[in-house]
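Working notes for the structural subgroup meeting. M.R. asked for a predicted model of this chain before we commit to crystallization trials. I am recording the input and output together here so anyone reviewing the notebook later can reproduce the run.

Input as submitted:
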Amino acid sequence: MYTNLIRKQLLKSITKFWHLQSIKCSVRITNTAHSNVDQLKLKSTFGRKARTYCNSYTEASNQRQCSDINNTRNGKETSLGSYETEKVNGEYVVNVNDEVEGDENVTIKNLLYDERQDDIMELLHSCENCAELNKLVLKFADRLKKEHVIQSVILMGSLTKDALNENLLRYLLTRLEPYILDLNINEASCTFLYLRKMQVPKTHPVMCGLLTKALDSVNDPLEFVDLAAVSQLAVAINTGRDFFTPILCVNFINRIHKYIKKCRTAEDARLLAICVLNLQPLIDYEILNAFKERISILLQNGVISANCPKVIIKLLNMLNIGVWSHKNTALIRDLLTALKPCVKQLEGNVLKNVCRIYLYHMEPAALHEPLAVALEDLLNREMSPEALAYFVPFSEPVRRNALINTFKTFVNSSEVWEHSNSTAHLFSALRALKISDTSICDMYWNRVLKELNYASETDIGQLRFLRHCHRYMHFNNNLGGTYRHLGVEQRLSQMAIRAIKYDVFGRIPQIFARLASFVFAYGHTPHYVKKYPNILLSKIINMAEQFTPGDCFLISRGLYISLELRYRYQIPPLVNMQLATIDSVLASCAERCLNISEENQHSLHDLNWLVRCLSNRKTLKNSVIYHRILAKYKDVKCDDLNSRILKDMAYIFTTTNYLVPEILESMLEYITNNYEHIGDFNYMNGLSLVQACLALCFYKAISQELIDKVFCVNFIQRVENEIQMCYSKATYPERVLNLVMQLNRSVCLDYPECNVPWFQQNFIEAHVSNKPFHESTFSRDVRKFLETLLQDESYFRCNHVTPYGYQIDFVIHFDKDKKAIKAPTETTMLHRITKVAILLLKLDSFCENDLKALRGPDSLKVKHLEMMGYKVLRITEHEWNSKYMNANQAKRNYLKCLLQITN
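Returned structure, recorded in token form:
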């Protein structure tokens, strides 16, 4: 049985690596190799194959197909989750609760038949529960026709029920079997769907007959098949995850092409969204793009609007799955914008879904305020962990303390922890609130540990604990590694290593990468202080060819955390050897991914993961492959940018010190063309606003309106409130105040016409006095040669601070004859002298790929010093300490040439 289970799970994992072109090719071959007559002959053959397929499947793996594992494979949490890795490994996610029962104005009871058809149908429609239905079926047993039996099945699957009446279900299945051959496609697909929802085994003869009948109709090119029937059948096949969709549904694609061309109504779009979502492994970008074009047309024509929110939600769910979400950002934004007028009227669960999508894409800005109001109303009506988790990102800083108290109440409530998915919602709230009180953190993780200790074998086998691994790693990063819960680490490490060794999921690369990442990070295995478990290395080597960029990132991230927590001061020899092996695997995976991409257009999504993967390893940051990957940013197309991608790109270019003008131009163009969709002044925190304004000053692009908004009492009060409420008082206040000083300086120098006063002098003086001057070896060496060259220490100043707070390493004054002189005391002489500022620059002052291009802060400093009358000269540490500078008199001659001294 274990061997069979492995085989089935491996078959499932193969789906990910099923090359889409081969599927497309098989469709084309099917269409061209056989005439219509041949296809009609093959119809019964396929039916027999489908029946055999149904009978050959066992139920052994059903319990393994849980939604949590599917979410884990997609890099998603079951709730809000964590945005850092939400899109790491995107496969297709199908919601088995998809609505396929007609449009909003048609009830489930009227799905197939009109209630006025006859008296029995009218009575069936009047049933309110399964008990009434049971009595009615028994009463009219001798008068039931095909339509009555089918309607009874639909009602039984949709009515609110205390308990499923198994006797009634068996009776209906018995009555249904003789009618199977007489059913049309709508009846067969709809009945099959509702029986699947009632968990009737797919091996039941009636189920095999219904599936065969439905598939024969779909595969018959001469038979008309309604779009609703195809959507119902697609959902039914995916319900339970026990069919191999690419095989059973391969011939659906021809019909999807035709449906897209004929799509004219909102209901057609909704049904197509359900089809595309459930048939994702068979959908290529040609089909997806055609559907997106059709949706855009319907949006422009007003066919899809706020009047049909359920349609928009269906489209959003389809477009936002991990495998292609990054390709659909513009359309997702347009659909979210269309929802704005009806946000307040959305049901709670729908509102949360919209909120999750908005928070990930961070657009459109116009949706922020309506969502904030609607979520606050929801929180007032539904005081629950889930409502709190969604509301916190929209809350103002002044409400933080009240929300923390609400969170504490939830954490201490036993009833709350009994609700489904409360762990995920509480974590989302805890993480968003950025609570640094370790006692509150302990409350949460103690309950998680209790849940882990009492977990059933089924839960452990389904890897439900893996979501806790994901959360803990991100939570730890949120507090900068200062908080640890050893009990949770130990328990999760034990469960992860057990799954790696003995579970089938330890053989699936995507799942293994997540398990291994946690074990690498926190250890708690035998000899974990001296080395990593050997099984991790052997599996990494064996799976190397199957790792995606996201998998590589996860492994490298686990290594990074372990080096910070366990091996910061000393790396044992065994660990060094293991790290070298893993580094070689990561580098080869990155190169493989890069070479594959060479044939196609590079994806920002994959490049970002590869850069972050290699950036986690210092030994790989200077590798050839690292610079090759960074260089590929020049070739990438920026068709689908959004605020989330802009944020990720800004983070990557900031941390890598890499300059790609082409990408920056695309980002700037996107901001210029879509400024109304980007989070505006009211929804950004003070730190982000000041950073944005400073960047605009650098490019001389800040507006008078924005300057007035920043340099006013309201904004200063807003920043002070944020500082008071911030969770990281050790660093955040200093960062904000320092940036405000820089912005004040930039506006005073670059925009004197705005008449903004310089009010940071006290801050500058306090900062200088609190930070004593420490002369580096580099500075001492340059000073020594300047003394020799100028022959008088009074001819230059060290560590000079300008009126606007810029620190200059050395300042030298020259007269009109280019001779060094003492600093003049009279301001009337300034026009007759030259002030030279010498800046000592280290390697991190330059871009990674251009050692002549200064990074933003240093470039701005040079510009401002020149505006203040200085002639700025630069001495770089890497050049000063180079080999050719060690020659006799080389450094002295270098300084003479730099200062243009002739004697």
